[in-house]
Amino acid sequence: MTPTLNAGSWAGVDGWVFLLAAFGAMLLAVWLLDRRRRRRGSTSLTMIVGLCLNALWCLLLSVDGRGGLVAGLGEVARNLGWLVVVLNLFARDNRDETVAPVRPVLAALALVELFQIALAILFTRFGKIPAAAEMIVQLSDLFHLLMTTGALVLVHNLYVGAVAGRRAADRWNCMALALIWGYDLNYYTIAYLGHSVPEDLVMLRGLAQGVAVVLFGLGERSGSHARFSPSRAVAFQSLVLLVIGVYLILMVGAAQSVAWLGGNASALVQLGFAFATTVAIIAAVPSSRLRRWLNVVLAKHFFQHRYDYRAEWLRFTRTIGRAGPNAQPLHARLVQAVADITDSARGLLLVPGEGGDLVLAARWQWPTLEVPASALPQDAVAFLERRGFIVDLDQIRAGTDFEGEAAIVPGWMIAEEAIWVLVPLIHFDRLVGLVVLGRPSVARELDWEDFDLLRVVGQQLASYLAEHGSQVALLEASRFDEFNRRMAFVMHDIKNLASQLALLARNAERHADNPAFRSDMLVTLRNAADKLNALIARLSRYGSGTVQAIEQIDAADVIRGIAHRANAALGRDQVLAADVRPCRILAGREPLEQVLSHLVQNALDATDNGLGVVLNTRVDGAEGVIEVIDSGCGMSADFVRNRLFTPFVSTKSGGFGIGAFEARELVKAMRGKLEVESREGLGSRFSVRLPLAPSEPDTSISSSRTSPESPMKVTRA
């Protein structure tokens, strides 16, 4: 069924044009058949059949007056033939796996084209009724528009998805198909909107068929093949283009249906329909969730592999290598690099603590998740190191347990529905980190390709993390070397001064005539010498990991003295020894006072609003605990993990940066541990844990650093 034609100056010429196009198509088909018989080319039989059907249709148009039933059926056969040619171009080199997702689209377009036969039957029965005939012709035009739009999208993908070396070979065939269906798209658009087609366009349609035959001939002379391998971006754009085409056709059909209803309500219905569709578009198009859903559908149904590995690797490299003042810390970039692969919007990084369990090291866009001090126990670390298993928490929640991973995942992770996947970072069979991914906006089940990619990415990130740790250790070692060299000069000078003062004291004892003066001089000089020698002894102990003269002391007495001295210096009662209970521990009084004095001073510096600093003592099992609590500015998990106990890193102007480090080392030397709990904006809690004294008095215990380093716990209070 062809739209009504307007008479014009080209009457009669279009028949000759179609006849020449039919002759050219048949001539090319015979030539290709002869080449195929002589095996001089790789021409497929579908191309020959398509040319024959195109020639038959052109011949029918030149004879049947361009409007008969037979010509309409001939056009159906021609379009079906060219769709088979497109399928053959996709399937070259036996790439059935690549072609498989295209076949449903081709089948849908073929079905739409077959509807023309049903419309032709209806037209023969009801064509004498003007209203029915007009409706059938309009529906026919709509089906033609839908088929040509989808066919053009397939031709577009066929060309841009071909390998660069073979794309030139299929250029001519794609140009020919684009010319045939591109002209038909405009032809039927004008026919639908204007209810008729100018005679000039009919003649040009025949000319387009002739030019397409010439392009087919050029394409067959090249004799090369193409391979379908479109990029994700091209496929996404093509799908959007197809959706837009279908949407436009539906809009035109809906508007025409409303117009056919007639009546006073027609304009109101059209306005309401336009308003509703506009609101729907505005709401859906900017949606990131819709875009992610389209990407998932494309990866699932149109590609052999879910990921575009080249694009993923480039993005991964850019994320890790991002630098500049506004760049995130390395630990946060590690989380982002993994989250971008799975479209997760947030994540965490857990790293091994000093006790072997996993502690929080960094957050990426997840500030609200509460993480315990020990995020993952040591047995979970051993399992992940041994198995290298990527844990899907949705499967555990559903009751699936593949290799015993359900037993090692802590309850707080299972209870938090937003936690989705755990990706271990393993370097030389050692777990250096664990990435915790949040659930993406479009949830899906992970498959083998996800696990393979995440495992490889985890190994790569583990190497970055291990290298970063090695660089930090080397930098710290170099700073210690510099510090030791400087302290050697200081100690040498002080030692000389102490020797001179001691010599002066001995001479005074021997030669001074005034007993009172001699006594005062001796006291003064001896005190100075003792202080200098004590300073030398303390400087000499830096880095030795030992504390002399460990004894049984009452922690309550120590913190009362610390609070008294601090309040006396401040001139007000700001340090409070609140919950003080008898607690006899094994420690060195001088180093313990040094540790607590430093922690209290830091708490006072962090509390700039005049709030109090609270000191507590308590017994916890076989340990005595001294707590220093403030309600100051608090610290982030990243700061506690990477900067708080790092030597020579200070946030204070002119600070040396070894106070917190020295405090932790002194506590370790007393066979204790220093724990930190902090949250930004709420304050911090430092807990000094030391062994309790035995029931029998024992004050002759020497200290040596024999126990392993205790873990520094980092939680959010």
TrEMBL record:
InterPro entries the UniProt entry points to: GAF-like_dom_sf, HATPase_C_sf, HATPase_dom, His_kinase_dom, Sig_transdc_His_kin-like_C, XrtA/PrsK
Keywords, in A-Z order: Kinase, Membrane, Phosphoprotein, Transferase, Transmembrane, Transmembrane helix
Pfam families, sorted: HATPase_c
Gene3D superfamilies named among the record's database cross-references: 3.30.450.40, Histidine kinase-like ATPase, C-terminal domain
Keyword Phosphoprotein: yes
GO molecular function: phosphorelay sensor kinase activity
Biased composition (Low complexity): 695-711
Region Disordered: start-end pairs: 687-717
Catalytic function, reaction form: ATP + protein L-histidine = ADP + protein N-phospho-L-histidine
Enzyme Commission (EC) number: 2.7.13.3
Membrane-crossing residue ranges in chain numbering: 15-33, 45-63, 69-90, 102-122, 142-160, 172-190, 239-261, 267-285
Domain annotation Histidine kinase: ranges: 489-694
NCBIfam families: PEP_his_kin
The protein's name: histidine kinase
